[in-house]
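Quick note —
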Amino acid sequence: MFNLFKTSPPPTLPDFSILGTDLHSHLLPGIDDGAPDLETSLTLIQELQSLGFRRIFTTPHVMSDIYPNSRNQILRKRDEVQEALDELGIEIEFDAAAEYYLNPNFAGMLKGESLLTLPGDRVLVEMSFYQPYRDLHRLLFDLQMKGYHPILAHPERYPYYRTAEDYENLKALGCALQVNLLSLTGYYGKPIQSAAKTILDLGLADFLATDLHHARHAENLRQALSHELVVKTLQASDFQKYSGGTAAGPHIRMEHG
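Predicted structure written out below.
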């Protein structure tokens, strides 16, 4: 008998190849709260590859009091991982930038050494989850005067930013916005999911990224391929913007500069 109540299965994505590039993760061994060792680094990189990512820019924390990583230290760890990938025959484009914590120490750093950037002189930055950096507008201005283009990591996760006006103000300060894929699924909680949806609905998200730290994140990313909001977002006609296209500028590529 014909079943009038039969429904189609919910849409799913085969992988995240529609994005192709991941520009926020913590995959360098023993350098921050991400991969603790080289074996884990390689496992997580292979997880991202199996999820459809063809390019990875890993971004270890640079936080003066907790993770005082230097440019040279990050690049040495990147080379260590690349050597291991080559030895194992794992073919994926891999590079490192950094996720800089905005505080007075970073303001001092900006006056000295060159920052580790994503392509297009983009600099990934983050703030305290408790309060915004008190001189944010000045620091973002100084970054841009140095020729850098700031990207604020996971703006949806800052509880002091929740309104359309908050996100529009960040954009007006010249700051691109990078939303975490797992925020769309409710992984970090309903308020953060709602904030992420607000950013997307306003058309203010410039990038989507994994912020991958560990195997639990990887497993939840795999589950996210069947999450309604993730599927809807990545199937949208302007999906290319989330890996660096359209209004955000040229697609993220491996070359720096």
